[in-house]
Specification:
The protein is built from three helices and no strands. It is globular, with a radius of gyration of 12 Å. It has helices at 3-20, 31-40, 55-66. The protein starts with a helix and ends in a 7-residue tail after the last helix. 55% of the residues lie in helices and 0% in strands. It has one domain (3-67). Helix 1 (3-20) packs across helix 3 (55-66).
Length: 73
């Protein structure tokens, strides 16, 4: 999987996943819950790309950026 393709997909899927959350769970969206959702919905192939820091690190960074969670970094 190309890293740029994964980034586009992860960002879009983060928003899709977030929109399914109950209102009370939206305050602090969890990357680990999102990752589980990816695995359960057959999107885990987007987490397989080459990265210096590691695919999970980059995916979590895109997730945080997309959902306005950069303050956690």
């Amino acid at each position: 999987m190309a890293k740029t393709e994964s980034e586009r997909a992860i960002r879009a899927l983060a928003t899709t996943w977030y929109d399914t959350l109950a209102e009370e769970r939206r305050e602090h969206p969890s990357f680990s819950e999102f990752k589980t959702w990816l695995l359960n919905n057959h999107y885990s192939h987007y987490l397989h790309f080459r990265s210096r820091m590691g695919a999970d690190y980059d995916a979590e960074m895109w997730f945080d950026d997309e959902l306005g969670q950069n303050w956690r970094r």
